[in-house]
Amino acid sequence: MTSILALSACSDASNTPAKTASAAQSSPPKLQEKEDLSPFTGFASARFGSDETAVRAAWKGSLRDGGGSDTCRQLFQEPRPAKGFGTSFMLENGQFVRYDIDSRERKAPRGLQVGSSSQQIRATYPGRFEEQPNKYEPGATDFIVTPYVDSDARLVFETDSNGVVTRWRIGLPPAVFYVEGCS
User: Fold this and answer.
1) How many domains does the chain have?
2) What is the pTM of this model?
C-alpha cells in the first residue's frame, strides 16, 4: 500500500488541467437587493454622521422628505409599501443618526427581521440586550441591543403583545431612543 501511495504521489502534474477561475469567481461579489445592509455604523455606504446626500446615494432609490425641521427630519422610501413605511432615515442637524425598518424586506444584524420572535432576540443576542415595556402598546416589549462591535449605536426591536417584532431601528443615542421619531 505504501508503494501505491508513493507512486500516486509521484504522478505527473502536467497531465492535470490547471483550475481556471470562472467569471463569477474573478469579479467582486455584487450586492444583493435584499442583502443585510444593516451595520451598526450606518446604512450601506452612508455612515452615521454623514449628510443627506450620502444617505440618498446609499439608498439608491427615491426618498420622500417626511417633513420636520432643520433640527430633525425623516426621509421615507418611495414608493411606500402597502403596509407601514418600509425604511426611513432620520437626520438631526443635517447629520444621519438613525434608520427604521417596519417591513420584512431587510434584516437586522444577525438575521432577525420583522416577524421574528422575542425568543429569537433573546437567543440571538444573549447578554447583549435590555428589555423595556413599550411606551404605547400594553404587553409589548422593546429590546435594546448593544452591539458586539465597538460602537455607540444601538439596535432597538419593538415587539407586539404576542412577542413578534413589528419594527426595528439602528442609530446613535439619543435619537435611537425617540419613540415617535422626529415628532
Assistant:
1) 1
2) 0.77
